[in-house]
Amino acid sequence: MLERLQELLGYRFQNPALLQQALTHKSTKARPNNERLEFLGDAVLDLVVAEILFARFSDLQEGDLSKMRAALVNEKAFFKLASLLQLQDYILISPAEANNHGHTKPSILANAFEALMGAIYLESGLEPIKTLMSHFLDRIYPDLSLQSTFMDYKSALQELTQARFKVVPTYTLKSESGPDHAKQFEMQIFILDKLYGTCSAKSKKEAQQLCAQMAYQRLRLEGSA
Fold first, then answer.
1. Do residues 38 and 115 make contact, with C-beta atoms less than 8 angstroms apart?
2. Cβ neighbours of residue 151 under 8 Å, at least 6 residues apart?
3. Residue 12: is it exposed, middle or buried by C-beta count within 10 angstroms (0-12/13-18/19+)?
């Protein structure tokens, strides 16, 4: 099963146990889990993305470079990358966390992506991560710029589906849970009656954006296959 993930990732692990650890959430109570790798990956990604931006944008001042890095090194950005790799299909979580829609939580998926990068760093150093991140950023932001790092995925997805399928996406509320002060909305997105993503968030609007982001990344991946 992890063969497909490594194909999407563009990197083959020499130590399969390290890959397994990067995908193991703390809720499983397994030891080791991916928390330490997440810590390492966060620091590595901060450095790698800064170096990529420094090399690519020689005309930008420090302030703008900092804004771009902040937009690319955070939970939402790492969730985009996790969606690109379809990590929701591979992350290991407890049954209780699964019942709480853990496979679709941006925080869990983003942390798994950081852990994955931390694992690659431990095994092979910085160079493979520089190569991978350059590739991933090009996939998500074909015209990477200060403006393109702040994308409205619902609008972008609608444009893509209209161009490719002559239809617009359909968003459906699957479930609503939690007390009034801490609601969780689970939304699903369909394109031509095919389910492209299920995401949970604190508002329907945010959940729709996350679903749109997941679907957009899948369509971009399918289009390049």
1. yes
2. 141
3. exposed
- Evaluate whether 110 touches 88 at the Cβ level (below 8 Å): no
Mean pLDDT of 38-45: 97
10: left (phi over 0), alpha (psi -120 to 50) or beta: left
Residue 163 has pLDDT above 90, yes or no: yes
pLDDT at 150: 67
Cβ burial of 25 (10 Å; 0-12, 13-18, 19+) is buried
The tokens for 134 are 């350059």
Q: Is there a catalytic annotation at residue 75?
A: no
Residue matched to tokens 């932001």: 141
Catalytic residue among 38, 42, 97, 186: 42
Using alpha carbons, select from 77, 75, 214, 88 the residue that is nearest to residue 141.
77
Q: Is 147 exposed, middle or buried (0-12, 13-18, 19+ CB in 10 A)?
A: exposed
Instruction: Give the whole-angstrom CA distance, residue 48 versus residue 84.
Output: 19
Q: What does residue 183 show for φ and ψ, rounded to 5 degrees?
A: -70, 150
Q: Considering the entire predicted model, what is its pTM?
A: 0.69
Query: Is 114 labeled as catalytic in the residue annotation?
Result: yes
Backbone angles phi, psi at 105, to 5 degrees: -75, 125
Which of 3, 62, 64, 114 is catalytic? The answer is: 114
